[in-house]
Amino acid sequence: MAPTVPGVAEGIVPPPGHAGSVPDTASRLLRLLTLLQSRPRWTAAELADQLAVSTRTVRADVERVRGLGYDVDATTGTGGGYTLRPGGVLPPVSFTDDEALAIAVALQTVSASGLADAAEATASAAAKLDRLLPSHLRHQVATLSAVADTVDPARDPVPTDTFAAVARACREHATLRCTYRARDGAASERRVEPHRLVHVSGRWYLVGHDLDRDDWRSFRLDRLTPRVPTGPRFVPREPPEGGWERLVVRGRMRALWHHRARVVVHADAATVAARVPIGSWSVEPRTAGTCWLDAGAQSAALLAVYLGALDLPLTIDPGTAPELHRAARELADRYAAATGSDSSKSSGSTPA
């Protein structure tokens, strides 16, 4: 059997050797479909302007794409226009060079997304993308696939059906009934108003308002099993103080670190954020030249070492962080003794 030329079977691109103006029409139909999928509604005048044709030609072209199986709605009057309905046949998709490479990179890194069964779906999507790309882009994407690797985060993956069910509950503002396993393996039944999914360090977290505890909570998605059906609809709440991401980071800190403290760093938030562990410590602007830093470690002594390694001036309040303040003083004395200097005369970073 002879190979099928892409587009001929669909009736958009004429077979080789076909004479006449059909190639211009085919190009215009592809452009029309691309425009229709780029936004919800177009007027005939807008499409005519984009395609450099008359509104009469636009109407004729719309009938042509309908004949090819694309469901295009037309409405008249004020606010009327053409809408490509979802579902049915997928229209031809065209990518810019940057868009194609961005999709290829996303597919390359999906293994670190924390979703189960991602490898097979990624391979299938990559194969479809490869068939859509022109030769020069196909070569670039193949080069990327040949030389780029991602590090497996070695996390417990989230089943795709769990991810989809929780995402749907978030979007529909439906109360989520679920079983949740704590860090020690103990299971409990929860009723949660789900608001946002957050991805941090290879894990997915659900941020929601726990109805039984009447407070915001973050839940590791790989430990959560949704129950069906979902509960009643709810009115979305205002985000927790500091936003969704900060709530997740604080929850991670509680789980990871035995000792936590808040200090003032005498530098802007962007400078500090570039020097702290992503997803484990939290930075919040305070003044033009200072910021709050919520930090943690296995012990106060180790936290004092980590904070010193920032190489930035900071203030530790003995009233709010007494253990860290004491550990920093002891560390300063130890270093002073090691260097034969008097720590009380040095410009310390932990004023009382």
TrEMBL record:
Report which superkingdom the organism of origin falls in.
Bacteria
User: Would you indicate the residue range of the signal peptide?
Assistant: none
Q: Which residues form the HTH deoR-type domain?
A: 25-91
Care to name a GO molecular-function term for this sequence? DNA binding
Pfam families assigned: HTH_11, WYL
Specify where the region named Disordered lies, as residue ranges: 1-21
Q: What InterPro entries does this protein's entry cite?
A: CBASS_pafABC_assoc_protein, DeoR_HTH, HTH_11, Tscrpt_reg_HTH_DeoR_CS, WH-like_DNA-bd_sf, WH_DNA-bd_sf, WYL_dom
Which UniProt keywords are given for this protein, alphabetically ordered? Answer: DNA-binding, Transcription, Transcription regulation
Q: Which protein, by its recorded name, is this?
A: Putative DNA-binding transcriptional regulator YafY
Q: What is the lineage of its organism?
A: Bacteria, Bacillati, Actinomycetota, Actinomycetes, Pseudonocardiales
